[in-house]
């Protein structure tokens, strides 16, 4: 569903000519309000009271503005200026930036498997954006730029809310941060004025906001009750695979052999990190 929402976003941009800020605002407001309402039935009154304290609200606003908003906006800008397949693949560079950040923060060289992941991610990215022809890019420069920024933003999105998620319901944190993020872009809605959409375009928005955000996210959370986090991380590779396959078979995307190899290399980094985490957890259990 996450992958398909990227394809529908690309079709929406092509049909309407609207800006990414418009779609991001609508998506985040719809999904955020619904997630917050769901959280209202999950969270106790005591936790709500703690959550609304000034210190926690400040952390929420920081996460919304520097985590949620950039991760959403850069991804849809990458789709608008490139395509759903490349945007979703480049977004998976997030683990690469997390590895680099942790190495700098701890002033410690990355592990060997981390170095292998970095090299594979970089080489794979070059193959994806050039399709094996190093003389020119296979996607627009702005699409490449925003795709890389989507990877950086995804890393920030992963690193920022740790304290909030340790103390409060994850649906509540995500839903309320989406509402704040959606409100940030309301000037874009006002500036656009009245927008006339046909039934198909409204259907695209409905899928992106409901199935590709709300339902997909709840499915992901529910899977954590049955699977280890590293396993869900590896299964999330279906997102770029879905976006790419749909783009190739239904949207006319031309994918060369070198580009396919690049996709495999980028996604392999997720498997390497997942297997590494699983091995570490196994060793800790033995100890």
- Tell me roughly what share of residues is in helical segments: over 70%
Query: How much of the residues is beta strand, in percent?
Result: under 5%
Structural class: mainly alpha
Number of H- or I-type helical stretches: 15
Cα distance spanning the termini:
39 Å
* Main sheet properties: none
Number of domains: 1
What letter string, H or E per element, gives the SSE order? HHHHHHHHHHHHHHH
Which geometry do the CA atoms define? globular
Please compute the radius of gyration using only Cα atoms. 19 Å
The residue-averaged pLDDT reads 87
Low-pLDDT stretches are: none
**Strands, total number:** 0
List the helices and strands and how they pair.
Blueprint (H helix, E strand, L loop, with lengths): L1 H15 L3 H23 L2 H7 L2 H28 L2 H8 L2 H12 L6 H19 L10 H19 L2 H6 L2 H15 L1 H7 L6 H25 L5 H7 L2 H13 L6 H30 L1
Helix pairs in contact: 1-5, 1-12, 1-14, 2-4, 2-10, 2-11, 2-12, 4-5, 4-8, 4-10, 5-8, 5-14, 6-8, 7-15, 13-15
């Amino acid at each position: 569903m996450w992958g398909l929402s990227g394809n529908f976003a690309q079709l929406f941009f092509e049909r309407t000519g609207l800006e990414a800020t418009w779609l991001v605002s609508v998506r985040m407001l719809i999904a955020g309000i619904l997630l917050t309402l769901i959280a209202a039935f999950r969270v106790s009154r005591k936790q709500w009271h703690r959550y609304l304290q000034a210190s926690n609200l400040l952390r929420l606003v920081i996460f919304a503005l520097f985590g949620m908003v950039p991760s959403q906006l850069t991804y849809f800008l990458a789709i608008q200026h490139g395509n759903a397949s490349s945007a979703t693949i480049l977004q998976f560079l997030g683990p690469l930036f997390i590895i680099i950040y942790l190495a700098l923060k701890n002033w410690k060289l990355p592990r060997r498997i981390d170095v292998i992941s970095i090299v594979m991610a970089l080489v794979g990215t070059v193959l994806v954006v050039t399709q094996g022809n190093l003389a020119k890019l296979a996607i627009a420069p702005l699409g490449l730029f925003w795709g890389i920024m989507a990877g950086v933003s995804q890393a920030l999105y992963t690193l920022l809310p740790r304290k909030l998620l340790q103390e409060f319901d994850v649906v509540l944190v995500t839903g309320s941060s989406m509402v704040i993020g959606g409100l940030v872009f309301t000037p874009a809605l006002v500036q656009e004025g009245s927008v006339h959409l046909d039934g198909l375009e409204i259907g695209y928005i409905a899928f992106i906001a409901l199935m590709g955000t709300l339902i997909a996210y709840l499915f992901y959370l529910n899977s954590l009750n049955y699977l280890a986090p590293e396993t869900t991380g590896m299964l999330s590779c279906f997102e770029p695979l879905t976006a790419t396959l749909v783009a190739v078979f239904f949207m006319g995307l031309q994918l060369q052999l070198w580009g396919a190899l690049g996709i495999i290399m980028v996604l392999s980094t997720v498997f390497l990190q997942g297997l590494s985490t699983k091995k570490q957890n196994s060793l800790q259990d033995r100890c």
